[in-house]
Amino acid sequence: MLEKAVKDYQISKGMTINELVSQMEDAWGFTAGKIAVGVKILENMIRDNDCVRFLSFTANLVATGLRGVLKELVKRKFVDVVITTCGALDHDLARCWKNYYCGSFFMDDEMLHEKGINRLGNVLVPNESYGQIIEEKMRFLLENLWNEGIKEFSTRELCQEIGKRICNESSILYWAWRNNIPVYVPGITDGAVGYQLWLFSQDHKIKINLLKDEQELNDLIFEAKKTGALIIGGGISKHHVIWWNQFKEGLDYVVYVSSAVEWDGSLSGARPREAVSWGKIKGEAARVMIEGDATVILPIMISALIDRVSRKK
């Protein structure tokens, strides 16, 4: 138990983020030690050629600058599969065309509503930057698909078409399409993109084939030798990853980043050790739970990860 001593940070001019994270392995210090472990797990996961790597995240993060970090993971092919929520599609698409703005948690929400400005935490989203632009772009996309005779599609196929046709290089979905990385959205109707699907269906007989998504995930899981996941936040995107992985005796690598608590019994707050009891994570898996705000933690972790992977090819 007393083999490894805690060491002080040695901060110097010009120090890289990777150098700082490397010092966390010895400086320890509560969450810092977990960040160091998490980066190491992700590095090993990326270097394991037998591993299918999942990324899941919640929509709120795509409304922030963390969208750029998530994009880099997909652009650099650090992940093989993305599972997320409808709101993530909303924000990714909308921000290709319009700006969101810096605000505060402490604002007059009645005043904001009167001015047509929505508040997502401390991010401000004007109506023209969300519902209006999503309606315009999704209507364009769906009409084109309809005219091409495409009247049934899975969420993976829909995300591919969004990335291909109405997003740009700032987008997660664009790079998923470019790199042929599937994006699955099990809760596709829970957001503005999903609402546009419903609205279009009122005068066009389109179908969303969710079972096709599930068949693809089934095939992927049963063909995988190993699997790993970076799971940011909770909800349906988190559960869909670990749910499917129970059918191959659990994930081999897992990094959770979340601010949710576990004492209420929620899936979002459940630690990796709980998933072990369900067989969704292997007992011997390399795993860590990092408690905190992903908008602070992930930029540090992924910056260090990119440095390490680029240095050791």
Topology diagram in text:
Elements: H1 17-27, H2 31-47, E1 51-56, H3 66-75, E2 81-83, H4 86-94, E3 101-102, H5 109-114, E4 117-120, E5 123-126, H6 131-147, E6 152-153, H7 155-165, H8 172-178, E7 183-184, H9 192-201, E8 207-208, H10 210-223, E9 226-232, H11 235-245, E10 251-258, H12 272-278, E11 281-291, H13 294-311
Parallel strand pairs: 1-2, 1-9, 2-7, 6-8, 9-10, 10-11
Antiparallel strand pairs: 3-5, 4-5
Strand content: 15-25%
CATH architecture of the domain at 27-88 and 154-190 and 208-311: 3-Layer(aba) Sandwich
Uncertain residue ranges:
none
Rg from Cα: 20 Å
Number of helices: 13
User: Per the principal axes of the C-alpha atoms, what is the gross shape?
Assistant: globular
The span between the termini is 34 Å
How do the strands line up in the largest sheet?
7-2-1-9-10-11
Helix and strand run: HHEHEHEHEEHEHHEHEHEHEHEH
Describe the structure.
With 313 residues, this protein is of the alpha/beta class. It has a domain at 27-88 and 154-190 and 208-311: Deoxyhypusine Synthase, CATH 3.40.910.10. The chain has 13 helices and 11 strands. The strands form 3 sheets. The protein has a 6-stranded parallel sheet with strand order 7-2-1-9-10-11, with helices on both faces. The two termini are 34 Å apart. The relative contact order is 0.16. The model has no long low-confidence stretch (mean pLDDT 97).
Task: Briefly say what this structure is.
This protein has 13 helices and eleven strands. By secondary structure, the protein is an alpha/beta fold.
